[in-house]
Amino acid sequence: MSRLRLIVVSNRGPVSFSRAADGSRVARRGGGGLVTALRGLGAHHDVTWIASAMTDEDRAVAAERPGEAVDEVTQSGAPYRLRLLDHDRNEYDRYYNGVANGTLWFVLHYLWGLGNEPTLGAAFRRSWTDGYERVNAAFAAAVVEELDRTPDAAVWFHDYHLFRAPALVRAQRPEARLAHFVHVPWPQSDYWTVLPDDVRRAIHEGLCANDSVGFHTERWRRNFVQSAEELADARTVTTVNPISIDPGEFDELSSSAAVLEEERRIVSSRPELLVVRVDRTDPTKNVVRGFRAFALLLEQHPELVGRVGMLALLDPSRQSLTAYTEYFEAIECEAAAVNDRFARDGWLPVDLQAADNFPQSVAAYKQFDVLLVNPIFDGMNLVAKEGPLVNERDGVVVLSENAGAYAELSDWVVPVNPFDIEGQAAALYEALTLAPAERRRRAEAIDAHVRAHDVAAWTETVLAEIHHPASTILSQ
Amino acid sequence: MSRLRLIVVSNRGPVSFSRAADGSRVARRGGGGLVTALRGLGAHHDVTWIASAMTDEDRAVAAERPGEAVDEVTQSGAPYRLRLLDHDRNEYDRYYNGVANGTLWFVLHYLWGLGNEPTLGAAFRRSWTDGYERVNAAFAAAVVEELDRTPDAAVWFHDYHLFRAPALVRAQRPEARLAHFVHVPWPQSDYWTVLPDDVRRAIHEGLCANDSVGFHTERWRRNFVQSAEELADARTVTTVNPISIDPGEFDELSSSAAVLEEERRIVSSRPELLVVRVDRTDPTKNVVRGFRAFALLLEQHPELVGRVGMLALLDPSRQSLTAYTEYFEAIECEAAAVNDRFARDGWLPVDLQAADNFPQSVAAYKQFDVLLVNPIFDGMNLVAKEGPLVNERDGVVVLSENAGAYAELSDWVVPVNPFDIEGQAAALYEALTLAPAERRRRAEAIDAHVRAHDVAAWTETVLAEIHHPASTILSQ
Questions:
Q1: Size of interface A-B (CB pairs under 8 A)
Q2: Which terminus of chain B is more solvent-facing, meaning fewer CB atoms within 10 Å of its CB: N or C?
Q3: Contacts (Cβ under 8 Å, ≥6 apart) of B65
Q4: Are B69 and B51 in contact (CB under 8 A)?
Q5: Residue A470's pLDDT band (boundaries 50, 70, 90)?
Q6: Residue A183 contacts B where some CB pair is shorter than 8 Å
Q7: Cis bond leading into B349, ω under 30°?
Q8: Does A358 reach chain B within 8 Å, measured CB to CB?
Q9: Above 60 in pLDDT, residue A475?
Q10: Å from A294 to nearest chain B CA?
């Protein structure tokens, strides 16, 4: 594909700044699937990236050249322009905690029992009007300025933080080429009724202001087409492109010193059979039910007691939201309950490690016999792709049917219904006892699939579709 | 329509027996929308009704002639045959509390926040296998015996207690004419994944074993067609017929001595403006959010303080389920909180009456200025039809967009999103201040609609479709 001009818009940028002890500015390149996926863009295209300033030093960078982008380079040395937006703190808090993570995330993943939750009153209304709309308007204003600089650039919005920005850009630049990628599940129309009519309508209209909207799976795409039609009488072109990972990055990481050191620790203490899970402590990730299923496995198969252990690497997440602190407590309680019940000298059933330690995660990926990925709903879930790629034991993936990754990997995983404790215990047993030849066949198939459908293929396909809309799937 | 042979199958029958003080057997004709709807059938058709024995005396009736029906007459004197099934107590508890009300009801109304609830483990599995399946099998066996007596009879199953029975009858009588009516909402396919794969499949296959399945609205019908296709690759003919009420019954009731006495009580204490709600204390009915909206109304419109009151007639419901006792407590708390905040001498903002008192409900129907019907989801909701029919003050209906009745009445109600507290406060204000001519126009329109589309029309239409399937809507 020829070199394109691209304006990437996402809440979190590819880099964040801080001050070192000596007072010098330090750029920390962020993690996360989206940033990883997009950081290869700069090598092939002219990229301007618009994102929120997150740290004090980000704000200092933004303040030095207000309304302008700075020149940056990616980890691999490719140049790009970075424009950080310094939002009002209160507005950002309403946008990020009040709406995006505190409300939309719950809608997008069916997290509320609708009899009692949520109460969307005046506080929500203020968060929407004086938070989400305003921050989206700031993003839209920056996009419009960048479009004035490069009118032929395509704008590529990302995810649930920016559902409104496309409509605000469209109103000012009717001819702009706008695309959005939605990295989360799309719930069905009934569940969207939990939001006030004008809000749910604004969300669907905001997305439909794009020339095209992309999803990871046909399931989420279809749900979006139906809810947009039903709730907002809105439509646009929709596409399906499952995001992926950079195999080269993981190949390199897996032999890095940091990972090898973490791996030595795991090897020195691992049980005969190791079940691994790697997640943020998010209620969507379904950690508690996973522990319950593991306990049921031990109860049903006493021969496994002392032989199998679960290593749960959990990154504490969104601890400013009550539902998340409560969920973290529930995770710790359940792990303690399983250990109280089954632990013996020298064997801990559940080894819960609450930390953000990526080398440790990669080391665990190498060592698992079974990888448990059981989210209640998940847009994609990259753990299911990362783990098998670096695993060295023909490990088996137990995968939720409600993870986006399931659409691609279903032939080679042990499927689970994430709500069915007995089913998950049975799936863990099946995975632990699968014949070696079959384990190998499946592990190789997933590895080959992920390498053939890597993140570079994803970005190039999506960008090609953005630039040649004729090749996209018409809605419905 | 010509006289038909009909086997009606529902969990609750049209009559329940008890012993009077003198030892004589007393038949109490039950309430509830379905029983009311169907009790007119006997006058026009040959009806055998199969239902669960509920009381000790029901079981005595069942035991006197095991495997046989008894001759009964409806309130209006029409004959029918009644067959009561005496289920094992434990099996019935698992079926009724464990599955139908404790699980299916929650699925059908989006009552679970899926991050933390439900835990469907061994107890649920037992309730399903040794409860729901067994009681459904007992119903199916009784249906098969009745079909042996009258092979040309059509079988008409009702509601979410009997999702499995049609498949069990079909397996034994491939040529039988089977129809089902679903009186609850049908959730969309994502939410059904909360049930184990074999269970959700069995439910959809059970229903699709019918020649046709009826729903109250196009919305629930469409959801069913999609989830049956997606989750069970199953399909059948589906129809839409919104159930209704018997206007004659309510006309008569409204001038009955019992109602007039209740009405005198209400009139003697009512405020200038009366908001009424009549519900079971079910989380689907959304009582707590209704109180919050009422409090917000008082806060936003101080001129209404002392002038408007809410009379909440709430029938305590399913108090054997924890979620229901907790919801009842939440209702009492919220009412007390509103009263603590706003009450003055001689004026109580919220008058909460927890009782099963039908004459009181009808009296309140006559007296409301605004009727609040705000369920989070509701298959139909007959309160929205009953109230306007007997109301004598051109009262306005505030109606949830997620109630089945909304599909029929939307032009003449003030619509509300049931989750939107501010929206509900605004709707109450709009309803309380609507111009008299407009109030009258709307009240008359609802009255005319309900009289033109009464329950007799519903039963005849549904029965005609059961007997002439060509007139039904093909799925998808």
A1: 125
A2: C
A3: none
A4: no
A5: low
A6: no
A7: no
A8: no
A9: no
A10: 13
CB atoms within 10 A of CB A471: 10
Question: CB-based contact (8 Å) between A139 and chain B?
Answer: no
Category of A456 on φ-ψ map: left (φ > 0), alpha (ψ -120 to 50) or beta: alpha
DSSP letters, A76-96, are TS-EEEEEEE---HHHHHIII
Mutation target vs B (from A108, A191, A193; most B CBs, 10 A cutoff): A193
For residue B283, which residues of chain A lie inside 8 Å, CB to CB?
115-116
CA A268 and chain centroid, separation: 31
Q: Which two tokens stand for residue A331?
A: 């995770």
Is residue A262 within 8 Å of A390, Cβ to Cβ? no
Domains annotated for chain B, with CATH where assigned, are 1-244+454-476 (3.40.50.2000), 247-452 (3.40.50.2000)
pLDDT of residue B476: 39
Contacts of A190 in chain B (CB under 8 A): 110, 187-188, 191, 223, 377, 402
- Percent of chain A predicted with pLDDT > 70: 97
Strands A46-52 vs A15-19: parallel, antiparallel or unpaired? unpaired
Quick one: which of B102, B84, B34 has its CA closest to B282? B102
A289 touches chain B (CB under 8 A): yes
To 10 degrees, what angle do helices B421-432 and B287-300 make? 60
Residue A469's pLDDT is: 64
* Strand-pair category, A15-19 with A212-215: unpaired
Q: What is the pLDDT of residue A66?
A: 86
Candidates A411, A272, A292, A286; CA nearest to A347 is: A272
In B77-116, the residues whose Cβ lies within 8 Å of chain A are 109-116
Q: With CB atoms and an 8 Å threshold, state whether B197 touches A292.
A: no
Residue B232 near residue B205, CB atoms below 8 Å: yes
Q: How far is CA B283 from the centre of its chain?
A: 14
- What pTM does this model have? 0.95
Residue with tokens 């004709």: B29
State the helix-helix crossing angle for A247-254 and A358-367, rounded to 10 degrees. 90
- Over range B285-312, report the average pLDDT: 98
Pairing between β-strand B46-52 and β-strand A177-181 as defined by DSSP bridges:
unpaired
Per-residue pLDDT reduced to its tens digit, A164-202 = 999 999 999 999 999 999 999 999 999 999 999 999 999
Query: Measured between beta carbons, which residues in chain A are less than 8 angstroms from residue B187?
Result: 190
Query: Using the beta-carbon criterion (under 8 Å), do B115 and A283 form an inter-chain contact?
Result: yes
DSSP characters over B120-139: B-HHHHHHIIIIIHHHHHHH
pLDDT at site A473: 47
The length of chain A in residues reads 476
Residue A174: CB atoms within 10 A of its CB come to 7
For residues B250-264, give the mean pLDDT. 97
Task: Give yes or no for B187 touching A (CB within 8 A).
Answer: yes
Rounded CA gap, B368 and B379, in Å? 24
Q: What are phi and psi of B243, to 5 degrees?
A: -70, 160
Helix (H, G, I), strand (E, B), or coil: what is residue B363? helix
- Test A116 with B327 for CB contact under 8 angstroms: yes
- CA B43 to chain centroid, in Å, comes to 23
Which chain A residues have a beta carbon less than 8 Å from that of B296?
121
pLDDT value at residue A277: 98
Q: Which pair of structure tokens corresponds to residue A456?
A: 């570079």
Residue A144's identity, in one-letter code, is V
Tell me the chain B residues in contact with residue A112 when contact means C-beta distances shorter than 8 Å.
Answer: 113
Q: How far is CA A417 from the centre of its chain?
A: 20
Q: pLDDT (tens digit, 9 = 90+) per residue, A30-55?
A: 766 677 777 778 888 999 999 999 99
Residues B358-381 have pLDDT tens digits of 999 999 999 999 999 999 999 999
Nearest to B8 by CA among B42, B43, B53: B42
Q: What is the pLDDT of residue B469?
A: 64
